[in-house]
């Protein structure tokens, strides 16, 4: 669906109760931390309470009516997720606890069965720890090599040696959008290169699916991981999408109820996908909430969401540079088209932790720290940044409030 | 900006801008311990020279926010030349000002509380001097870890120095 009109941010904002009800009666809440976790619209909160109040029961195997209704809601949600990312089959949608678990599933289950000495997994230097540590844990056990696609000072990947890095690699597992720099790598050409080298592709799409139209078929990846809580949905639910033939060939990840066909004293037979990878009682209500979030985003139109964020990011890059001048470094690509609305800020002479504290006095919420990307911090030569991130409920007034607060912080710490 | 002046007193900003005793000491003889605040990525390295029962010299290296850097800088002034017992009293008094009390110490940094020795001075009788300026930090609970980072790292460095000297480490 292509939408033409622009996003009506005031109307969107009115759907999010927190902006009316939170904390400071005197100053509006300027929420610029959606890259960590987004706020939730009324529609999601209500869908979850309505489900608890009218339909809640454990899923699968229940015979009574609400158990069946709950199962139907969950399986309906699976179809909603599949539709949202263009997955050919709903069974390819595995519900996990979050993106971290989804990435661990790929490493442990696919990697555990397929990687050994002499193999290589290719990552980038701008990965979140969730797409580093699972591979490192496995590498320590299996003895394969981890190779790193470098990040250039301008925030883009250095792809000049990509073919060499991919030579002999079994997997390329990369972020689809950096949670620190906002960088959106040239996924098309990178994935084509991985294919040519015979490597599979995993995308950490935690920061991508919430912000850009996503179509797994045209992306041509093999696995995609994301979290519900960064896309207006609740915490406690994440998604792994994978190709049927890969998922079917992989051994189970967690064992327990819900994932077996049969268990004897001698052993077990795993169920078909998706059940094989969904051991234990799933986060049923959260899955219902995620479907409501997706319906909400669909209603806005993801191409409209993306356009809004590109234009707001352009406004932010321009405004912050004008107001703060050379004193402010904004890490990451300078072209809004190459990035998402994640702005890692460095105000000379003011440590990110102090900066965020001053911003909080303005009720401006940003996040200081390493953003779970310590290898990238080392490449950038910083210990931490203060990160402001934009989403559907943000508009130019939020950026202006951020700029005011930054100017204030600059004066407070002037020396 | 209401409240911020309590946190960022002028003397804190002064220590942040011109940190005292910054740098490294040669190891050995110095003992070197690194401390991390995983929350914000602050990293601090404490170097101490000891003579068996006192800290004869100290240096701080690493990076961090104004609170962790100023706390570290003031700490170095406060402890240089002081005996381990005096430093232990000072640490307890400082942590008490940060509302971390002896019986909570184990919970805060994973270390056993110091057994009360006869010389130990009650926390409220220890003179904190410039360190008093950090009192405002208590109102900003997430920042307490910034203020205590250098102190926890120092305690570890002193423990290591004492262990190397064959002296009792003070923690049982
Ligand atoms: C790029 C990226 N990958 C992975 C994660 C991990 O997400 P979660 O903590 O929801 O598992 C995050 C979020 O923190 C992220 O931004």
Any overview of this molecule?
The complex is a heterodimer of chains A (415) and B (172). Chain A is an alpha/beta fold. Chain A has two domains: 9-31 and 301-412, Aspartate Aminotransferase, domain 1 (Alpha-Beta Complex); 46-299, Type I PLP-dependent aspartate aminotransferase-like (Major domain) (Aspartate Aminotransferase, domain 2). Chain A has helices at residues 9-14, 18-21, 42-54, 65-84, 99-114, 133-142, 162-166, 187-196, 216-219, 244-249, 284-300, 302-324, 352-361, 374-380, 396-412; strands at 30-31, 93-96, 120-124, 145-149, 171-175, 200-204, 223-227, 238-242, 260-263, 268-270, 328-331, 342-347, 364-365, 367-369, 385-389. In chain A, strands 2-8-7-6-5-3-4 form a seven-stranded mixed β-sheet, sandwiched between helices. Chain A has a four-stranded antiparallel β-sheet with strand order 11-12-15-14, covered by helices on one side. Chain A is globular. The mean pLDDT of chain A is 95. Chain B is of the alpha+beta class and 172 residues long. Chain B has a single domain (4-162), classed as Alpha-Beta Complex (Sufe protein. Chain: A), CATH 3.90.1010.10. Helix content of chain B is 38%, strand content 15%. Chain B has a three-stranded antiparallel β-sheet with strand order 1-2-3, with helices on one face. In chain B, 37% of the residues are buried. Mean pLDDT of chain B is 81; it is low at 104-113. The A-B interface holds A 351-354, 357-358, 361, 368-370, 374, 377, 383-384, 408, 412-413, 415 and B 1-4, 7-8, 13, 17, 39-43, 63-67, 69, 140, 143, 146. Pyridoxal-5'-phosphate (PLP) binds next to α5 of chain A.
